[in-house]
Amino acid sequence: MKYLLPLFAFLVIRSCGNSESSESEKVKFELVGYFKSPTKLRYYTFAVQTSLNLDNPLEFEEFKKQVSQHGSKQTNTAGQITACFYYETIEGTPDITTLNATQANKTAHDYKPILAYWNLGNGNNNLIERP
User: Fold this and answer.
1) Interval 114-124 mean pLDDT
2) Three-state SS string across the chain, please?
3) For 65-82, what is each residue's pLDDT tens digit?
4) Is the distance from CB of 117 to CB of 68 less than 8 angstroms?
5) In this structure, are residues 43 and 74 in contact, taking their beta carbons and an 8 Å threshold?
6) Contacting residues for 62 by C-beta, under 8 A, at least 6 apart
7) For position 24, what pLDDT does the model report?
8) Please, which of 18, 47, 108, 131 could form a disulfide with 30 given CB 3.0 to 4.6 Å?
9) Rounded Cα gap, residues 118 and 129, in angstroms
10) How far apart (Å, rounded) are the C-alpha atoms in residues 114 and 85?
């Protein structure tokens, strides 16, 4: 009996953990690369799995909504830029972790993301298609 409570607590915590899936489970995000400068400029690269048909305009709008919500939840320092890049496959998603800021930004763009979510650090956000 004394082992059941810790086991139950572990299972509850695990099930409520930081999931990288949308609530509807239509879009899943996998972090592949992360860069943070000494001034707290941040770049993230995510591979995306989705059951949505991205060629369908209505489903692409739903996808954009899910990406925007996901991007808005990423760590940001007030006054600093955070950019999240989203790619169609894990193989096509760059790992920018060991690069400098210029290389990370260039590489993230060169790999042709589907979408990029920019938190500009001043209260403004942009969601850009095929940046």
Assistant:
1) 95
2) CCCHHHHHHHHHHHHCCCCCECCCCCEEEEEEEEEECCCCCEEEEEEEEECCCCCCHHHHHHHHHHHHHHHHCCCCCCCCCEEEEEECCCCCCCCCCCCCHHHHHHHHHHCCCCEEEEECCCCCEEEEECC
3) 999 999 999 999 999 999
4) yes
5) no
6) 26, 52
7) 53
8) 47
9) 11
10) 8
Which amino acid type is present at position 16? C
The tokens describing 92, both together, are 């096509």
d(Cα 126, Cα 13) in Å, to the nearest integer? 33
10 burial (CB, 10 Å; 0-12 / 13-18 / 19+) is: exposed
Q: Which residue has the tokens 């808005």?
A: 72
Tokens of 96: 């920018």
Model pLDDT, residue 46: 98
Q: What is the pTM of this model?
A: 0.81
